[in-house]
Amino acid sequence: MTEQPLDRAARIEHRFNARFAEYFDTLGTALDAPAFSRFTPDCVGLLRDLSLRGGKRMRVVLLHEAARLVTAEPVDGLDAAALSIELLQTHGLVHDDLIDDSATRRGGPTTYYAYRERFPGRPRAALGLTVLAGDLALALSLRVLLEAELPVAVRQAMVEVQTRAATDTFVGQIADLERDFTAAVPDAEMLHDVADHKTARYSVLAPMRLGLLAAGAEPGAHEDELRRYARLVGICGQMRDDWLDLFGDEGTTGKPTGGDIREGRHTYTVVRLLSAVSGSERDFVDRALGDPACTPETIAEIRAIGERAGVADRMRADMRQYAERARLVAQGWRPRWREDAVAFFELLPRWSVERSA
């Protein structure tokens, strides 16, 4: 990205982080919890900690830039939409970490492991409270829109966008788990469909729809190209996440590498690795795949195998190819929408490929 969009993104991120903290500071008084309940404020505290711990807020930036496609003037409703987007993201993080049995997220404990530490002798309570914490974040993501001071029609349209985004994401999560039950190695189209449902529709498409709605535009009039752009960016982003799981820097990502290998997941990286190696190297990868006790040394050797086989470099090339296709979709918006905002969407795909975490 050029300096101007990066500076703008940083300002949006800084402002939203302050707004998000303020939201959680007042949330306790807004929840109608029984007076005796101590678990409820504890749950809110865990959600607050996870929500405010890192993250580049690119969904929020996408929301604001989508509104800027239509107008450079201040737009009502963006704060509520941004809170909704990030609360839905918090819901996803809580449940993802539970599904993956992840101990850390963004350099700190996951909600599930925080509850496990609080209730070491009550594993079912820790599990149940984690599920409920994620559910609460989802409900709050819709509630902030229902309570927003916006025209009823806009409010209703925004709630519909987020409800559809959440539904698509859940379907994507189900398909993601189903993909790993198949005996055959999945093909590219299956991986793309999972990335589209699981990531693109709530991380890219929904923020763009919400931003356009807040600015008074009708996103349905441009549905096909918005979906095409979001799908391509989502594929880039998912490829990058999968690449980072094996080839990334643990200190930068805040998560241990090799999680997908240990869980036996058929990600972009794992599928490319399986197709690139043979003989004793393939046997080595097969033995490690799905072994939760796989050591860091084994993961390091698999990483070296992937690098020698050119997997890391070829995946980078694939990511850049999809990023370029997304850029060309956005380039076609120039006759219709504001040029400086379109430029952001042209630059975003390549940024999603080059990011380090």
Automatic annotation (TrEMBL):
The keyword Protein biosynthesis does not apply. Signal peptide: none annotated. Keywords: Isoprene biosynthesis, Magnesium, Metal-binding, Transferase. Its cofactor is Mg(2+). GO terms for biological process: isoprenoid biosynthetic process. PROSITE patterns: POLYPRENYL_SYNTHASE_1. InterPro entries: Isoprenoid_synthase_dom_sf, Polyprenyl_synt, Polyprenyl_synt_CS. One of its GO terms (molecular function) is metal ion binding. Belongs to the FPP/GGPP synthase family. This is Polyprenyl synthetase. It comes from Streptomyces coelicolor (strain ATCC BAA-471 / A3(2) / M145). The lineage of its organism: Bacteria, Bacillati, Actinomycetota, Actinomycetes, Kitasatosporales.
